[in-house]
Amino acid sequence: MKFAALLLLTALFTTGANAQPADPPAVLAADPADRDALRATIAKAREEGTLSYWDAIIAPETEDEMMPLFLKAYGLPASFKVKHTLSPTQGVVTRVDQETASGNVTIDVASLASPPWVNGLVAAGHIMEYTSPEAKHYDKAYAAGLGRKGYYTPNGGYMFVPSWNPDTIDFKGKSWRDVLGAIPEGRMSINDAPNSATGLLSYMGLRQILDLDYFRAMAKMKPQFVVRTEQMAERLVSGQDLMSWGGSPGRLLQYNGRGANLKFILPKEGILLLGNATFILTKAPHPNAAKLWMDFSLSPAAQTILSKREALVSTRTGFVSPLPDYAPAIDSLTLIPMDWSKIGPDDIRKGKAEWQSIFTP
To answer: Going from the N-terminus, what domains does the chain have, and what CATH number goes with each?
Structure first.
């Protein structure tokens, strides 16, 4: 509730003749010139009465914290329904592709860390052109290729990194290369790249700093192929695996919150940050509710929750992470540069074929 309180406090010190007593916190905090437009959007969203949001990140506990704050910020009634669907990455891709191909769109907003796929949706006209009032705080993210102003903005970024359970292995490495030979064969999980869009993109990014010999050596360790990072963390907790080559800090955070003691490193060579692109579908059935959710997702309040609960790295300029150990400031990271605008379907197919030739020949 800190966000709502902050908005109300801001409103008390904001002068503007067009403020109204019944205005919700978000309107009171908006620039006076933008208030009428926001009031109109909120009124239409109330009529729509619902919002459908799909992503591959937000856990139920995070949803439970975000949704009431979203309703309060815009003065939406308790009857307003936010239908959130958490799905594997490929599930989001498949569902959005099916709906846009058929023209029967039920999803309003989606978030996914797959820039080539999202850029394809933009090119095909499937993403609504909308510039959130929060967009001005994400210019650095746009410049880095993590978003495209007017179409999609990352509500956070995440990475896949080496992780382990110190109760089962004493790992002191600092590098991607330190993982090689650190544990016996068959005791490590890696991202199942052919069946995970983000896993494949991560592999393609890491190929910028790690040569084929590195991955051939990794294949000799006979890793287990896993799609979901939750499963990777669970295998570390149970002792089934000694290491995970592609663990998610967000999932490690959640397991540690339940009593686990999982660790990870940010390898010195660098990490690939995947921007979780948030966008509105052109044929969204509830476009006004979608705009409000987009705005809220990029606000300091939502960014704080996503950083705190999901360990997402905020790409909002000037944002101070509430959880720097798991979600450090983006300026503190050594990032692998990727020009996603130049990555197309052929590059994706080549990357997949290369991975398969190494790990499943």
So the answer is: 2-158+274-328 (3.40.190.10), 161-271+336-359 (3.40.190.10)
| DSSP line for 281-349 | BTT-SSHHHHHHHHHHHTSHHHHHHHHHHH--B--STT---S-TTTS--GGGS-BPP--GGG--HHHHH
Written as six digits, the tokens of 224 are 């287990």
pLDDT score, position 88: 87
Of 106, 155, 111, give the one whose Cα is nearest residue 132: 155
pLDDT at 356 over 60: yes
pLDDT in tens, 121-179: 999 999 999 999 999 999 989 988 899 999 999 999 999 999 999 999 999 999 999 99
Residues 6+ apart with CB under 8 A from 124: 100
Residues 169, 181: contact at Cβ < 8 Å? Answer: no
Per-residue confidence (pLDDT) for residue 197, from 0 to 100: 87
Instruction: Please state whether 16 falls in left (phi above 0), alpha (psi between -120 and 50) or beta.
Output: left
